[in-house]
Amino acid sequence: MSHTLPELPYSSDALAPHISAETLGFHHGKHHAAYVSKMNAAIEGTAKADLPLEDLIRTSAKEGDQGLFNNAAQTWNHTFYWNSMTPKGGGAPKGDLAERIDRDFGSLEGFRKAFADAGASQFGSGWAWLAVKDGKLEVRKTLNAETPLTEDGVVPLLTMDVWEHAYYLDYQNRRPDYIETFLGKLVNWDFAAENLVKSGQ
Fold it and tell me: Both 123 and 191 in a single domain?
């Protein structure tokens, strides 16, 4: 069984002007597609070929197969990232998610600062995450392809890609501007709320 590149959950120009169709074309059509292709090549004809993607990520991490892990995790991370954004996103969360952000970060602004700091301070390439662990919301940052999926009990709710190819065509070296736009105009709170409910935490 080979894995396929998932379609974007919106048209390639749906996030413009915040993220351009050109950026999404390269990011999804080239970078994400390459991770899927390399992952499939690595597992073809092996016992891992039939593993679901999340199991493949965890197995390759435990076995120290860095090449396979990088491509499998980046395949998953990117799909999660596309869904962490939505046209006309941003604003404020509602319901239980909003209450728990207030409880665990002090306020929505407290969350936004923690998340923005995680993204801005991630040296080089990586990701910023909102996750839940033991019933408490937390912000994390990971390097390169690393993902919270490899830690027991941690469930990611949303993510922001801070690899340069995620924003350079639109923002050049202005990562903080990209982060501000992600939080203010793109973040998909409904997706995060759905993931929180599914987590059971």
Answer: yes
**Residue 2 binned pLDDT confidence (cut-offs 50, 70, 90):** confident
CA atoms within 13 A on the CB side of 171: 20
CA distances for 111 relative to 40, 85, 140, angstroms: 37, 17, 11
- Residues 35, 110: one domain? no
Can you spell out the DSSP letters for 7-75? Answer: PPSS-TTTTTTTS-HHHHHHIIIIIIHHHHHHHHHHHTTSGGGGS-HHHHHHHHHHHT-HHHHHHHHHH
What domain range includes position 165? 95-199
Residue found under tokens 């292709």: 37
- State pLDDT tens for residues 78-135: 999 999 999 999 999 999 999 999 999 999 999 999 999 999 999 999 999 999 999 9
**The pair of three-digit structure tokens given for residue 140, joined into one six-digit string:** 């994390």
